[in-house]
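Why should sequence recovery work at all? Because a backbone constrains its sequence more than one might expect. Tight turns favour small or flexible residues, buried strands favour hydrophobic ones, and helices have their own preferences. The token representation captures these environments compactly. In the example below, the structure is given first.
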């Protein structure tokens, strides 16, 4: 269901508390005046309507937004957005106490690439050629096809982007991706993989795209793992879609490795 923004000055603490599964309480802050507080799990949400301030405190961090224009309630979550159309940030509080804060990326294409990925040989991790590291290596991945002893076994592929990356939000996380053509050794035919990356890696990829560093046709190394994502069908069934969830995307500046 789409989120319908409401005026922040009319924040409904009772409705927000119901969505998060807890009761709101009135409070007063020395700096911001009267407000409401909602405790959910280890997180504490504070809203000061008159001051235009939303604050979330967890055991590890505090996030405070000023001049908040609107909020939305969708299912078991409360969402606050701040900033201009091309420079927005989103603060999200879930009913399980999880908190997310991230930039709202400008979607250049559909939030899911239309090219379907096909399975093929992937190399074990090897030292990369001289390259330009674009994305970070701390993005989390979904359930994989290759875990040993509880540790995720990462693999590396090298290929060219079949189109410019797409950017969007998936499961309340910044996401980005692109189809990657990998030429198999001894074959002129490419195998296509649907590469998807999340969180900081997606944000960094967006910056690399804006700087024209990673665009259609560019040669890149991707490090990550093969996964299978289940998507609901209109008829009630489930469609299994293979993807490659990358924790790092690296532009290759030199010549490609032999066999690529």
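From this structural description, the recovered sequence reads:
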């Amino acid at each position: 269901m789409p989120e319908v923004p409401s005026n922040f000055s009319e924040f409904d603490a009772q409705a927000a508390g119901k969505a998060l599964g807890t009761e709101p309480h009135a409070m007063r802050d020395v700096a911001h005046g009267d407000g409401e507080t909602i405790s959910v799990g280890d997180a504490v949400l504070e809203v000061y309507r008159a001051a235009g301030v939303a604050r979330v405190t967890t055991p590890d961090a505090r996030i405070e937004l000023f001049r908040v224009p609107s909020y939305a309630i969708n299912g078991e979550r409360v969402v606050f957005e701040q900033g201009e159309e091309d420079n927005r940030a989103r603060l999200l509080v879930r009913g399980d106490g999880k908190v997310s804060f991230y930039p709202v990326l400008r979607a250049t294409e559909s939030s899911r690439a239309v090219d379907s990925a096909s399975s093929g040989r992937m190399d074990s991790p090897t030292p990369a050629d001289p390259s330009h590291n674009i994305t970070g290596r701390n993005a989390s991945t979904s359930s994989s096809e290759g875990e040993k002893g509880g540790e995720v076994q990462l693999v590396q592929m090298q290929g060219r982007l079949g189109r410019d990356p797409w950017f969007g939000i998936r499961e309340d996380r910044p996401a980005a991706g692109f189809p990657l053509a990998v030429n198999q050794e001894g074959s002129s035919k490419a195998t296509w993989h649907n590469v998807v990356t999340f969180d900081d890696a997606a944000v960094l990829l967006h910056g690399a795209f804006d700087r024209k560093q990673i665009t259609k046709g560019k040669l890149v190394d991707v490090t990550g793992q093969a996964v299978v994502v289940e998507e609901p069908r209109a008829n009630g069934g489930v469609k299994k879609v293979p993807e490659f969830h990358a924790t790092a995307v690296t532009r290759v500046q030199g010549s490609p490795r032999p066999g690529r």
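A few observations help interpret the result. Residues 197 and 221 are 13 Å apart (CA to CA).
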